[in-house]
Each structure stands twice: as C-alpha cells, then as structure tokens.
Design brief:
Layout: H1 2-6, H2 13-23, H3 25-44
Length: 45
C-alpha cells in the first residue's frame, strides 16, 4: 500500500485501504500486476 501512495496512485494509506476493500480481493491480483508494471517503468527512467 505504501508503494501505491509513493507512486501517487492514492493520496494516503487510508484512501488506498478504502479503495482496495471496495475493489475486493479478486481484483487485488490485477492491481499487483499494475504496480509491478509501474515499478518497472520507474526503473527504466
């Protein structure tokens, strides 16, 4: 969650928690793929 805040996806940890709960557990794996892709993009810069 901290990484999502660092990347600017969310403004705070509490916002991230609310959004992730809303998305649900099934969608969490998709979000992990997105975070990994964002990390790779930042590494390339």
């Amino acid at each position: 969650m901290d990484l999502l805040v660092e990347l600017g996806v969310f403004k705070s940890r509490s916002e991230a928690v609310r959004a992730l709960v809303k998305i649900g557990i099934e969608e969490l794996s998709d979000l992990a793929v997105i975070v990994d892709a964002c990390e790779k993009l930042f590494e390339l810069e």
